[in-house]
Design goal:
By secondary structure, the chain is mostly beta strands. The chain contains one helix and 15 strands. The protein has one helix spanning 48-51, and strands at residues 7-12, 15-19, 36-41, 76-80, 82-83, 92-96, 107-112, 121-122, 133-139, 150-153, 164-168, 171-177, 192-196, 203-209, 225-231.
Length: 232
Amino acid sequence: MDRSGALFKKTGRGRWVLLGLEPGPASGPVIETGESLSFDLIPSDDLFWYVTGPVYGGVKGAKAGDINGKAREADLSAALAVYEDGSTPGTLILMKTVTPPVPGVWRRLEIPLHTYEERPVEVELDLKCPSRFLEYILVPRYNPAGLVPVLREERGRIGFGPAEKTRFMGGDAYRIVSTGAVEPASEHPYKIILYEPRPAGERVLHPGLPLPRYDQPSPAGPHDTVTNYFYY
């Protein structure tokens, strides 16, 4: 960076600009064929590791890997650099797993420099958020009649299977899992209601259970399921 006279400047959240790649002295340009910029992507929030899965695509033959690093040989991402007019130089921007692993580094971004014309170019990284099944372990404080709880999303946007009896902390509990996976979000629109069936009709036990955190994997399915434990 110092040798090339370039300036790397932050212009907004998640947005950086590389400025001032100028030719060198009379001997020729500073940037030589094959030179590139490498950036280590280091998450500042531990939750990032759970809500961001492997990014892939654009590389022929690449396959999805899971969040714990399976299929790492194909775990790389490619994006195209784009000029302001929408055209592209056709250069792949690679984001790949660091080998050997470096503590705290999620991926390494490599941007080749010599292929671009002398005009602004933009690279946008498309990070994938893996969906997860939602599991609830419901622990009754007092349930002498053995009534089985029911979960429903207010508008039916998430389906839930029937409760299964299980054990938790030495006592009886019920396990309910969503029928489909749900994408993570900082603010979710769902309202999950806990009901208790009774002869005279259902009784609402809780009007809105929180979604499980994505850093709370299920003991039964840690790769694709997250869990919330709730006493009622």
